[in-house]
Amino acid sequence: MARTTDRAQRGGHSGVSIEDVAAAAGVSTATVSRAVRGLPQVSPATREKILGVAADLGYVASSSASGLATGRTKTIGVLAPFVSRWFFSKAIEGADRELHSRHYNLSLFNLGGHGSNRERLFSKTMVYKQIDALLVLCMALTHEEIEHLQKIDIPLVVVGGHVDECPYIGIDDYAAACTAVRHLIDLGHQDIALLHGDDETDLNFDVPRVRIKAFQDVMAEAGLSVRPEWDECGDFTVPSGQAAFHRLWDRPGPKPTAIFCASDEMAMGIIFEAAQAGVRVPEDLSVIGIDDHDFSEAMGLTTVGQRPDEQAELGTKMLLDELDGVAGAVRSTVAPHWLIVRRTTAPPRAADSPAVGRIAGQSAGGTASGIKDDDDSVAGQPAGRSHAAG
Questions:
Q1: What value does the mean pLDDT of the chain take?
Q2: Over the range 143-169, which residues count as b (16 or more CB within 10 Å of their CB) and which as e?
Q3: In Å, how far are 28, 31, 187 from 76, measured between CA atoms?
Q4: Distance CA 28, CA 41 (A)
Q5: How confident is the model at residue 370 (pLDDT cuts 50, 70, 90)?
Q6: What are the C-alpha distances in Å from 232 to residues 211, 214, 271, 302, 338?
Q7: What is the CB neighbour count within 10 angstroms for residue 208?
Q8: Nearest to 260 by CA among 205, 337, 371, 185
Q9: What are phi and psi of 34, to 5 degrees?
Q10: Helix, strand, coil: what percent of the chain each, to 5?
Q11: What is the CA radius of gyration of the chain?
Q12: Which residues, at least 6 apart from 154, have a Cβ–Cβ distance to it below 8 Å?
């Protein structure tokens, strides 16, 4: 028996591919895809012609499709580099919430922290149309991967970071990191360490680089030096924060009075190990993170909050609205972030004045974009959340 080619496999039955249907109908493969999946922007006459050709050739969009009349799988794919980390689990929760309310299913594609199965995922699984749309969490897509998805016209949106050529939803990571560092400077800290994330995989998302750049820029604006020996790298997890603390404190020389952590989980690792080493937080070391993790309030962690579940919920709603024919439903959107001051930040013990090296336009009690005072609210801020807690 002759070996079935990938091109033939994409047809589902009788070795008929989407390219065969497109050629016979005299249209593009994207038009065939929209027609058999019941998507808008295909005229009734063209849809009828394509469905007739597809029926004659024995083409079926996928084994899970309900039929050529709709072609819908009623399933949205969620592509995640991890599922165990806080941001991703919360985002999946938000996507599932919206899908459940709209009677859709969720198909999770977990890369497990690496991209070894990406080629098969994009060239086969998604091209076979086992999903109607795709939500991508915190990872970049290559130009070739985007072309695969555009070829069959799968709507997609990225949550949690900027990706070229794709609509995306997420906080302004640069502004969020600036907010965190400025808070430390406004308290009077000059000796500030950085614990940033690093992408050691081929997932290549922008968040770590953007937050590093923000730290460097704010320190420069305040006339403060960035000490290379206080530049530490983690992977957004608690253990990486614990390891970073020991590298900082085991190294000879002066110690920072504050540390900006690019995630709450890394900040928690710093706090855990500081307690074991007899370093008091915030008396000896102020610590701030980004996220507002579920455990941050209980730990009294000062942080810059965001809601990944709401970001993914909004992205999923956009995809479903697009599938329902709402023009312009999928679009890039900046999600809110806000400063939450708790117990882990305070002025350094040696500071006699309330703000040393303060940035022009900032004040210890003032507000900035995405920051709120004790009694004010911010768009997107969950009810009952306070600026000063603990």
A1: 80
A2: eebbebbeebbbbbbbbbbbbeebbbb
A3: 24, 20, 46
A4: 13
A5: very low
A6: 13, 15, 15, 20, 25
A7: 20
A8: 185
A9: -65, -40
A10: 35, 15, 50
A11: 25
A12: 33, 126, 129, 131, 132, 133, 134
CA distances from 369 to 60, 83, 218, 387 (A): 51, 31, 15, 14
Sign of CA dihedral 191, 197, 199, 203: negative
Residue of 171, 191, 188 lying closest to 334 (CA atoms): 171
Q: Is the pLDDT reported for residue 20 higher than 80? A: yes
Question: From CA 160, how far away is CA 170, in angstroms rounded?
Answer: 5
Closest CA to 172 of 160, 187, 154: 160
Question: 82 in helix, strand or coil?
Answer: coil
Q: Distance between CA atoms of 292 and 306, rounded to whole angstroms? A: 6
Name the pLDDT band for 6 (thresholds 50, 70, 90).
very low
pTM tops 0.90, yes or no: no
**Burial classification of residue 271, based on how many CB atoms lie within 10 Å of its CB (0-12 exposed, 13-18 middle, 19 or more buried):** buried
Strands 302-305 and 338-340: antiparallel
Instruction: Give the pLDDT mean for 52-62.
Output: 75
The pLDDT, as a whole number, for residue 374 is: 36
pLDDT band per the 50, 70, 90 thresholds, residue 114: low
Alpha helices in the chain (DSSP H): 6-9, 18-25, 29-36, 44-57, 86-101, 118-120, 143-151, 173-186, 207-221, 238-250, 264-277, 296-299, 308-323
N- to C-terminal Cα separation, the chain = 71
